[in-house]
């Protein structure tokens, strides 16, 4: 293990240390190392994790559709705590714990009751339709709203799931959700299969000319970067919360901190290049 770690993590500012690290970030770093060293020697073992995510936007002003694809190596899943099957039991245990602590008594940590969810709850949350504000419609040449759904255009040999367990306390301190997610032996992923541009649908046209200027509250952006968040993530948070201030932007950050494109360059929704006309799924992967 030590030789493997020294080889893979050599020169990395975080992974080369003995500090505690994030497993998902290490996995993506490992994928990068594999790709870098297989360019000339091949084959690339990371290909068994590779798949295409389909982001589908339906412009509410024109009814036209934009479909884009991005390459991923692990699938982030939200944790819908409101779908937990034992919310009442957890609330009762927390009440007893608070009463005990007020009396100077500490309950046995082994008796703690944690929220319990099924993996299907997380998959349903991923597939749930999302309303995107400030979507720039190239059909209207103006901002509007759009309905967004996320699906898988291709499926890998091995699908790595990343449970997004981080959230924010009321004092903006990041914490990890203490939940138990039941993992079944088999999973039906057919509801996540992407369909691309469907028959009878009209695609949104490509952007003509320069994109419209984006107005951002730079004080909020700077405050988020001072807290340690990437500048591109800060821009997204301020944009999608419509410049409403630091608190809404921070909440957005914590809701999306596990997204695979969290620190990718900020592109306003609707202005990213559509790939519906050029992407052809691999039939074997599908």
TrEMBL record:
GO molecular function: cysteine-type deubiquitinase activity
Residues covered by the UBA domain: 215-256
GO annotation terms (biological process): protein deubiquitination
Entry-linked PROSITE patterns: UBA, USP_3
Protein name: ubiquitinyl hydrolase 1
Domain USP: 1-286
EC number: 3.4.19.12
Matching CDD domains: UBA1_UBP5_like
Superkingdom of the source species: Eukaryota
PANTHER family registered for this protein in UniProt: UBIQUITIN CARBOXYL-TERMINAL HYDROLASE (PTHR21646), UBIQUITIN CARBOXYL-TERMINAL HYDROLASE 14 (PTHR21646:SF10)
Region spans: Disordered: 190-212, 267-286
Pfam families, per the entry: UBA_7, UCH
Catalytic activity: Thiol-dependent hydrolysis of ester, thioester, amide, peptide and isopeptide bonds formed by the C-terminal Gly of ubiquitin (a 76-residue protein attached to proteins as an intracellular targeting signal)
């Amino acid at each position: 293990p030590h030789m493997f770690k020294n080889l893979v993590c050599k020169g990395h500012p975080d992974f080369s240390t003995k500090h505690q690290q994030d497993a998902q970030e290490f996995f993506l770093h490992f994928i990068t190392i594999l790709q870098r060293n297989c360019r000339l020697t091949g084959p690339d073992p990371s290909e068994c994790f590779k798949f295409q995510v389909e982001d589908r936007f339906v412009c509410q002003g024109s009814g036209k559709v934009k479909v884009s694809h991005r390459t991923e190596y692990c699938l982030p899943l939200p944790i819908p705590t409101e779908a937990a099957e034992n919310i009442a039991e957890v609330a009762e245990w927390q009440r007893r714990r608070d009463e005990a602590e007020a009396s100077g008594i500490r309950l046995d940590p082994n008796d703690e009751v944690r929220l319990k969810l099924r993996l299907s709850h997380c998959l349903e949350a991923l597939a749930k339709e999302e309303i995107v504000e400030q979507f720039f419609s190239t059909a209207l040449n103006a901002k509007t709203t759009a309905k967004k759904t996320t699906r898988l255009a291709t499926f890998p040999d091995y699908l790595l799931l990343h449970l997004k367990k981080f959230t924010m306390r009321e004092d903006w301190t990041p914490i990890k959700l203490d939940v138990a997610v039941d993992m079944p032996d088999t999973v039906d992923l057919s509801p996540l299969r992407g369909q691309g541009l469907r028959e009878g649908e009209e695609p949104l046209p490509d952007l003509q000319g320069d994109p419209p200027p984006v107005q951002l509250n730079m004080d909020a952006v700077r405050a988020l970067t001072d807290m340690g968040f990437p500048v591109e993530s800060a821009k997204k948070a301020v944009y999608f919360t419509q410049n409403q201030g630091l608190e809404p932007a921070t909440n957005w950050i914590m809701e999306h901190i596990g997204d695979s494109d969290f620190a990718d360059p900020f592109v306003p929704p609707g202005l990213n290049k559509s790939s519906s006309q050029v992407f052809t799924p691999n039939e074997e992967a599908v």
